[in-house]
Design brief:
Strands 2-1-3-11-6 form a five-stranded mixed beta sheet. It has a four-stranded mixed beta sheet with strand order 8-9-7-10, sandwiched between helices. The protein has 19 helices and eleven strands. The chain has two domains: 207 residues, Periplasmic binding protein-like II (D-Maltodextrin-Binding Protein, domain 2, 3-Layer(aba) Sandwich); 206 residues, Periplasmic binding protein-like II (D-Maltodextrin-Binding Protein, domain 2, 3-Layer(aba) Sandwich), CATH 3.40.190.10. The protein is an alpha/beta fold.
Length: 438
C-alpha cells in the first residue's frame, strides 16, 4: 500500500462528499451479465483522433487472450470528464478499470481512495524514463497514484520575421516583457488565451510558477486551511503581464473569448508575432498549408522556443497537460488493468501515439525516435519544456481554485495588479469555507 494514505475517517468524509454529488445525478453501475471469454477491461478515454482506441486493440492482441480492452468515450471537456468519473467512482462503479485522467483532477480522486494503488513493480517499470514535469503530475502526497501516459506542454511559437525585426535573439530564453515590447513596437498581436476557461488557469499558474511561487502553498491542507500564494510579488507580476496584454489590446480584438485554437488562427495571420500554445499548432498549421488555406511561406517563418520567463534569469515553468492512467479502486481486475496500462504506456506506443495523434510522450527516450524527429522538428524543445514544466495546483479542491481564477482574471482587460490577486484569494478562500458560492 502507498504511504501517506489519509486517515480512515477523513477518507470516509471525502467519499461522502463526492457521493453527495453522485446522488444529484444518475447512479451509474458497471454491473452487467457475465460474459464468456477473457476478462473485459473498460478504458474510459478522453476524445482524441482514435489513438487510444487503436492502442486498446493493439494491447488486446498483445495480451494473448489474458484480457480484452474496450473503450468508453468521456465528454469532450475536462470538467465534464471529471464530473462523470467522480460520480461513477463515488457510486462504486466496478467498470472503471482504466481511466484517462487530466492531471489537475488526480488529487480529488486519490484523496478519498478512489484509485487503486499502483504496484511498486509497475511504478518502477513505467516511470524510469518519465520526464520530471509529467511525473509530478501523476503523484499525490509524494506517492505515484497514476501512471504517466502522454504529457503536454506549451512552448513559445514565434514568427522569425517579427523576432528579427525586433532584434530579439531567440537562441536563448526571452521574457514576457521582451515579447510584449516587441509586439507593441511592431503593432502585432500576441497569441495568448484570454477566455474565461481552464486555459486562463493554465496561463496564470505558469506565470506564477515561473517566478518560483505556487498558487496553493499547502496543497494537502483541508478546505478550511488552504493557503494561497496569489498575494505575492509573483501574483502581482502575473497580473501585470495579463493586464498589459489585455488593456493595450496586444492580444487582439477577440482576446476575451480566445482559446487555444483562436489564438493559433490569429498567430497564422498577418499580425501574428509570438504565441504560447500546445504542440498541436505544428500539425494543424501544416494541414492548413496542405489544404491551400495558408501560404506555404508561413511554415518557414515559424520558430519555437521554451516558454517565456516571467522573471529574467529565472527558468520558466511551462504549463503541464496530458493524460495519466488510473485504475478504479472497485475494479474487479486491477492486476490485469495494470498489465494493460504497462502495454499502453510502452515507449513504442507513446511514439506511435505522438506520431498519429500529436500528443507528446511522457517517456524522455521516445523523443529520440526518428519518426518523431522527422514529424516534429521541435521535439527537443517539447522534451526540454516538459522536463521543467509545473503542474497546476495539486489539491483536492482544484475545481474551486480554478473556477475562482477564471472568474477574477477574465477578461484580461479587467485585471488590476493592485487588486486582482487579493480579490481572487479572498474569493477562493470564502468558497472553500462555505461562505460563498462559485
Amino acid at each position: 500500500m502507498p504511504k501517506n494514505q489519509p486517515p480512515a475517517a477523513a477518507r470516509r468524509r471525502r467519499r461522502a462528499t463526492v457521493v453527495a454529488v453522485a446522488a444529484a445525478g444518475l447512479l451509474l453501475s458497471g454491473c452487467g451479465p457475465a460474459e464468456e471469454g477473457p476478462p473485459v477491461l473498460t478504458w474510459y478515454i478522453n476524445p482524441d483522433d482514435g489513438g487510444q482506441a487503436a492502442l486498446a486493440q493493439k494491447c488486446t492482441a498483445d495480451a494473448g487472450g489474458d484480457y480484452r480492452i474496450e473503450v468508453t468515450l468521456l465528454p469532450s471537456d475536462a470538467s465534464s470528464q471529471r464530473e462523470q468519473l467522480a460520480r461513477r467512482l463515488a457510486a462504486g462503479d466496478t467498470s472503471l478499470d482504466i481511466m484517462s485522467l487530466d492531471p489537475p483532477f488526480i488529487p480529488e480522486l486519490a484523496e478519498p481512495g478512489f484509485l487503486a494503488p499502483v504496484p511498486a513493480d509497475v511504478a518502477q517499470r513505467t516511470t524510469g524514463n518519465t520526464l520530471e514535469g509529467a511525473l509530478a503530475g501523476a503523484m499525490w502526497k509524494d506517492e505515484l497514484v497514476t501512471v504517466p501516459f502522454w504529457a503536454n506542454t506549451q512552448i513559445l511559437w514565434y514568427r522569425k520575421s517579427v523576432a528579427e525585426a525586433a532584434g530579439l535573439d531567440m537562441s536563448g530564453s526571452v521574457t514576457w516583457d521582451q515579447i510584449i515590447d516587441a509586439a507593441r513596437d511592431q503593432d502585432k498581436h500576441l497569441g495568448v488565451q484570454g477566455a474565461r476557461a481552464e486555459s486562463m488557469t493554465v496561463w496564470v499558474n505558469a506565470l506564477i510558477e515561473s517566478s518560483g511561487e505556487n498558487i496553493v502553498t499547502n496543497p494537502e491542507a483541508t478546505a478550511d486551511e488552504v493557503r494561497l500564494g496569489l498575494e505575492s510579488e509573483a501574483g502581482r507580476k502575473a497580473a501585470e503581464i495579463v493586464a498589459t496584454i489585455g488593456r493595450e489590446g496586444l492580444g487582439g480584438p477577440g482576446l476575451p473569448t480566445q482559446a487555444e485554437n483562436e489564438s493559433m488562427l490569429q498567430f497564422q495571420g498577418q499580425r501574428g508575432s509570438f504565441m504560447v500554445n500546445w504542440p498541436f499548432v505544428w500539425p494543424a498549421t501544416n494541414a492548413g498549408v496542405d489544404a491551400g488555406n495558408l501560404d506555404a511561406s508561413l511554415i518557414e517563418d515559424i520558430g519555437w522556443g521554451v516558454y517565456p520567463q516571467t522573471v529574467e534569469g529565472t527558468p520558466s515553468a511551462p504549463p503541464l497537460g496530458g493524460i495519466n492512467l488510473g485504475v478504479g479502486s472497485e475494479s474487479r481486475n486491477p492486476e490485469l488493468a495494470y498489465q494493460a496500462i504497462e502495454c499502453i504506456v510502452s515507449t513504442e506506443n507513446q511514439v506511435e501515439y505522438f506520431v498519429t495523434n500529436g500528443n507528446p510522450p511522457s517517456d524522455s527516450t521516445a523523443y529520440d525516435d526518428p519518426s518523431i524527429i522527422e514529424q516534429f522538428p521541435m521535439a527537443e524543445t517539447i522534451r526540454e519544456s516538459l522536463d521543467q514544466s509545473a503542474p497546476r495546483p495539486q489539491t483536492p479542491y482544484y475545481n474551486e481554485v480554478s473556477t475562482g481564477i477564471q472568474q477574477n482574471w477574465a477578461p484580461p482587460s479587467g485585471v488590476d495588479p493592485d487588486t486582482t490577486p487579493k480579490n481572487t484569494s479572498d474569493f477562493i478562500t470564502e468558497v472553500l469555507r462555505g461562505e460563498r458560492l462559485l
